[in-house]
Amino acid sequence: MESAYAIKKEPSELKLIDLLFNPIIFFSKIKDKPRLFMPFFFVSFAFILMSFILTPYMLGAFKDQLPNVDLRSNDMKNFFYITTFLFALFQTVISLCIGALITHGISILMNGTGEMRAAASVYFYSQVPMAVKALIIVIVSLTMGERFQTLFEAIFVKYKLYATMCDPFFVWSSFLLYIGIRQAHRIPWWKSLIIVLILATGKLMFV
């Protein structure tokens, strides 16, 4: 009887569809079997790809600020592509690692009982909506072509803070993090909410 009960209680296979429609079940499985590589790779790939694709629009946004620099030259374009790639790689990796560490650290201060691997997995998976947004931006930019320049300057330059605050993907990401922290660290809802608000405020400060 005990073995049958143990088999019954063993976590079932992890399904990404649950992240969209049943995040409570998804993160309850992550708590017992944390996964790090797949969400880390997917999120990193999406952000690096977006930065690479948006490089020409960044050049267009800088043309008024750097009137004496020929931004259309091949050397300058290659320089921007290389710099953007390296910066996006560094920023994405560092932000994911620091975000996971801060999430786990604050959770521990609030008497959380989860492991670092579980907290990191939760944080990485909670960033999937932002990665989806990055891929959507890539598709839209490739579809619109030069017409995307105006939209780019509005979203990423002029109204970046307001666009982030009203971003449904940012809200979705925060909601997933809220559920994930509760599951991974076994803490009350209000503590998880405080952690998410602290992290969200921190992100908005650096926008």
UniProtKB/TrEMBL annotation:
Its main location: membrane. Signal peptide: none annotated. It holds the Pfam family Yip1. The chain crosses the membrane at residues 36-59, 79-102, 122-142, 162-181. InterPro entries: Yip1_dom (IPR006977). It is a multi-pass membrane protein. Residues 17-200 form the Yip1 domain. One of its GO terms (cellular component) is membrane. It is found in: Membrane. Keywords: Membrane, Transmembrane, Transmembrane helix. This is Yip1 domain-containing protein. It comes from Croceifilum oryzae.
